[in-house]
Design brief:
about 120 residues, four-stranded antiparallel β-sheet, three-stranded antiparallel β-sheet, about 5% helix, globular
Length: about 120
């Protein structure tokens, strides 16, 4: 499992490991690194919105909720200022790409964009 550091917001806020994208998301419940694709059908989970309880992220493709608590437990991470370091699932030899993915307003609570 590779340990990677990337930006909390703005350019480089997404790290892809073996073609799977991950982003730092911050809701009213706190921040965490999550897989940026929905586990149900691969929809753009980075564009999801928290449900009214704040316990689930609702996929914009099919409106299915995914437990935010479960997503948080999948990837251990520590935020320090404008960067986050996370243990990403995958082979340490996997191809790693840093890029930008826009986040829905509900996933960037308290994150300042750095453009």
């Amino acid at each position: 499992m590779p340990v990677l550091t990337f930006a909390v917001s703005g350019p480089g806020n997404c790290v892809e490991v073996g073609g799977v994208p991950y982003v730092y998301a911050r809701t009213a419940q706190g921040g965490s690194v999550i897989r940026a694709s929905c586990p149900h059908r691969g929809g753009p989970l980075h564009l999801a919105t928290p449900d009214p309880t704040g316990r689930q992220l609702v996929c914009p493709w099919h409106e299915r909720g995914t437990s935010l608590g479960r997503l948080r437990k999948e990837i251990p991470a520590v935020r320090r200022g404008s960067v986050v370091t996370a243990v990403i699932p995958g082979d340490p030899g996997s191809t790693v790409v840093h890029r930008h993915l826009p986040l829905s307003p509900g996933l960037s609570v308290g994150c300042r964009e750095q453009f």
